[in-house]
Amino acid sequence: MARRKNDVPDDLDHRQSTIKDVAELAGVSLSTVSRVVAGNYPVAQSTRVRVQRAIRELNYVANTHARALGGGSTRTVGFIVNDVRGPAFAAAVHGVEQEAAQRGHICLVATTDGDPARELAAIQLMREQRAAAVFLIGGAWDSAAYRARMIDIARSLDAAKSRLVLCGRPSLGPGIPATVVEYDNEGGAYALSSYLISRGHRRILYVGGDPAFTTTTGRLAGFRRAMADMAVSVDESLFELDAEFSRASGYERVSDRLSGGRDFTAIFAETDVIAGGAMAAVYDAGLSVPDDVSIVGYDDIPLATDLRPSLTTVHVPYEELGRAAVRAALDRPVGRAERHQLLGTHVILRQSVGRPAIDR
Amino acid sequence: MARRKNDVPDDLDHRQSTIKDVAELAGVSLSTVSRVVAGNYPVAQSTRVRVQRAIRELNYVANTHARALGGGSTRTVGFIVNDVRGPAFAAAVHGVEQEAAQRGHICLVATTDGDPARELAAIQLMREQRAAAVFLIGGAWDSAAYRARMIDIARSLDAAKSRLVLCGRPSLGPGIPATVVEYDNEGGAYALSSYLISRGHRRILYVGGDPAFTTTTGRLAGFRRAMADMAVSVDESLFELDAEFSRASGYERVSDRLSGGRDFTAIFAETDVIAGGAMAAVYDAGLSVPDDVSIVGYDDIPLATDLRPSLTTVHVPYEELGRAAVRAALDRPVGRAERHQLLGTHVILRQSVGRPAIDR
DNA sequence: CGCTCAATAGAAAGCGTTGTCCGGAACCTA
DNA sequence: TAGGTTCCGGACAACGCTTTCTATTGAGCG
Questions:
Q1: What is the pLDDT of residues B177-188, one digit of tens each?
Q2: pTM to 2 decimals?
Q3: Minimum Cα–Cα distance from B158: chain A residue
Q4: pLDDT tens, N- to C-terminus, chain B (360 residues)
Q5: How far apart are CA B5 and CA A154, in angstroms?
Q6: Across chain A, which distance is largest between two alpha carbons, in Å?
Q7: Distance (Å) from the alpha carbon of A220 to chain B's nearest alpha carbon
Q8: Chain A closest CA to B228's CA: distance in Å?
Q9: From CA B1, how far away is CA B96, in angstroms rounded?
Q10: A280–chain B nearest CA distance, Å
């Protein structure tokens, strides 16, 4: 609360000391202390030393809030993610954090659990904090309403000299003041599907999420394009969509399929985590990977190398995604061109793919 | 920068609007707007509506910094962790974040990569931000100097009406103003080791980190105590210490051992991640798990269920650790008793342990 | 020896809120 | 109808810092 003049602080020596305390102890003015701390103005050597001693003695720590209020910039960025426990997200978060820290920025985190309402609330909080940039990490549900709201947010942030940064989700359209760093969902899925087809697979079970989710949209499109390009007829019954991005979901979908008879030779799992569940389901059905069923994933998280057989998947540069996003947002030159980067993805061949059982 | 009176803002309509703009548009005073936003003082229905309309129209967002300066409390907590990508840490981070969000607090993150200097810098940043509490997550290097510095920090934070919270590391001693939420490293390791011994294992390879690291200290102590209690003689050559907590390190240590001949029947890996590497090394040496070598881990991260065979390990309630820490720090009653909680751990039996090969 | 100029330090306004103190209007009660 | 209440709304100091703007040196120089 605002303390009145005559209201004497009860615990003088156990208070957080302010710049004023330092100034008094050092026998200089507030301005001088401020300048010593900032180091942006000439201060005589002797004075500087005196002030620094006082700072150490009082254990003085500048108050960011006051600084932000008086000075201007915040040196704070915020990022918003579905769930920090997802290994792919975690890598992106790590990239953001490292790169931001290197620029002297500190990160605010918020998680949404995939709930757009919580996402909105989180953005609001970061706006209150006057974050220099707000990073939205991971795919999004693409609806007209959602997009409209995002555009609104992008404009608001821009007006506040902040920046909306979309990591791993598509652009909101030209002219919208947002920075976009995507990776190639469609291309990776195309390459991976092509590989599967080239190995002889024709009946491939696709296990993925909601097609309105941008990540699914891209990967699914790549899969379909590869099938079309290589003239493989697509059986629409071989799509298990609207799955969750979880091991349990992958296990369940594949178990259910398998209990109704095996009518596919390979599984395209939309994420490595789903692939892990799928692989367990295949084993539990008494089948082997890749002899009976081949499996591929997407993301190349650490799990992919720990699975047995190790998982053939698509490498996504999540950490670099985060780093690139920070660079684009914080190092942006005066001419604030809308940046749009597309990071490449590539297939990592491991041991979970073989020739179809039927061929052998 | 501080704008002088006569300095006219160049972009009036594209500025972040302030409470003053809202007040003018609604035709009321600043105080009234503040009260509508805070909702802590009676305001006539009609006035309130008018103000709310103005807020929406101007897209007004309160400035946390100003609020913190004028008002007092911050509704911000900070946490510091080695690496957000560690699944165990990630779970703890998730717990902290969820519980903090529920209390309307937002989280600041910083990572240290295990570097004490960076940890110090991070704490400094959180102090500048006037975080309501600072959570240190994960084990620590226990040296007298380090502890002394931590005690200093605990006192500083306490003086600033903040709070140091130690999650998963031991107390700094009685009378130090810090909150501690630990889990039982020693007990879990004791139970797990006992299980291994009860299955007939006598020669157990222990793969772990630096014994000065508190996590290692505890787990190692539990292991030794079990061996002693069950009268198994300990071969000091069967300790691979100072390993990193990584898959690569686990793989390398076990590979090296195996290349010199197999003189153990089981591996006690200090973390599940190390166990994953160890398991791969055993396989690559042409041996099987658990027929030739049994393996156990610690942490019960998701990987443990994905490994084949699935990993027998100790469950650590990381998420609850984070939640409990927030509760202890933020809901602390007026009587600020130093809290110290010890969360239980328990063995999870899976498939990576069998009888020693020699018995069969 | 008076002048200018650089180097350094101080005074004070302003940043956007909150909370306290006060005043005026409407509403009772006697 | 006079005197209290109760409700509401406004004025304003204070929060801790940055950043002009202004003042005081002492040195260099013609």
A1: 999 999 999 999
A2: 0.91
A3: A14
A4: 444 444 444 444 567 889 999 999 999 999 999 999 998 888 999 999 999 999 999 999 999 999 999 877 889 999 999 999 999 999 999 999 999 999 999 999 999 999 999 999 999 999 999 999 999 999 999 999 999 999 999 999 998 889 999 999 999 999 999 999 999 999 999 999 999 999 999 999 999 999 999 999 999 999 999 999 999 999 999 999 999 999 999 999 999 999 999 999 999 999 999 999 999 999 999 999 999 999 999 999 999 999 999 999 999 999 999 999 999 999 876 555 567 999 999 999 999 999 997 644
A5: 31
A6: 92
A7: 25
A8: 34
A9: 36
A10: 8
DSSP-derived letter for residue A14 is G
- Close Cβ partners of B210 (under 8 Å, ≥ 6 residues apart): B141, B216, B241, B242
Asked whether residue B64, judged by its CB, lies under 7 Å from any atom of the DNA or RNA strand D, the reply is no
Contacts of B3 in chain A (CB under 8 A): none
Residue B341 CB partners (closer than 8 Å, separation 6+): B180, B181, B182, B324, B328
Contact B24, B57 (CB under 8 A): no
- Scan residues 70-89 of chain A and list those with Cβ within 7 Å of strand D: 70-72
Q: Is there a contact between B307 and B352 (Cβ–Cβ < 8 Å)?
A: yes
DSSP A60-115: ----HHHHHHHH----EEEEEES-TTSHHHHHHHHHHHHHHHHTT-EEEEEE-TT-
CA-nearest of B253, B256, B258 to B270 is B253
Task: Give the separation between CA A353 and CA A294, rounded to whole angstroms.
Answer: 5
Instruction: Supply the pLDDT for residue A271.
Output: 98
Q: Which residue has 């920068």 as its token pair? A: B1
At B61-71, the pLDDT tens digits run 999 999 999 87
Query: Do the Cβ atoms of B16 and A160 come within 8 Å?
Result: yes
Residue B126 vs residues A68, A76, B100, B163: alpha-carbon distances, Å: 15, 11, 16, 11
Query: Cα dist. A257→A35, A135, A262 in Å?
Result: 69, 38, 7
Distances (CA, A) of A36 to A44, A51, B71, B121, B309: 10, 7, 28, 19, 61
CB B95 within 8 A of CB B81: no
pLDDT of residue B299: 98
DSSP B177-203: SEEEEEE-HHHHHHHHHHHHHHTT--S
Residue A21 tokens, joined: 């305390």
3-class secondary-structure state, position A136:
strand
Alpha helices, H only, B129-271: 144-159, 185-198, 214-229, 247-259
Which positions of strand C lie within 7 Å of protein CB atoms? 7-21
Instruction: Name the closest nucleotide to A70, judged by C1' and CA.
Output: C15
- Residue B334 burial (C-beta neighbours within 10 Å; 0-12, 13-18, 19+): exposed
Q: How many CB atoms lie within 10 A of CB A183?
A: 24
| b/e sequence B223-239, b meaning 16+ C-beta within 10 Å | bbbbbeeeebeeeeebb
The verdict on whether omega for the bond into residue A211 sits within 30 degrees of 0, i.e. cis, is: no
Residue B257: CB partners within 8 Å, gap ≥ 6? B205, B240, B264
Tokens matching residue A191: 């390459």
**What does the angle CA B207 – CA B210 – CA B214 come to, to the nearest 5 degrees?**
105
Q: Which amino acid is it at B289?
A: V
Distance CA B137, CA B145 (A): 19
C-alpha to C-alpha distance for A280 and A297, rounded to whole angstroms: 14
Pairing of strands A313-315, A294-296: unpaired
Q: Which residues of B touch A85 (CB under 8 A)?
A: 87, 90-91, 94
* pLDDT value at residue A185: 97
- Give me the phi and psi of B315, to 5 degrees please: -80, 130
Q: Supply φ then ψ for residue B114, to 5 degrees.
A: 80, 10
- CA B255, B257, B262, B263 dihedral sign is negative
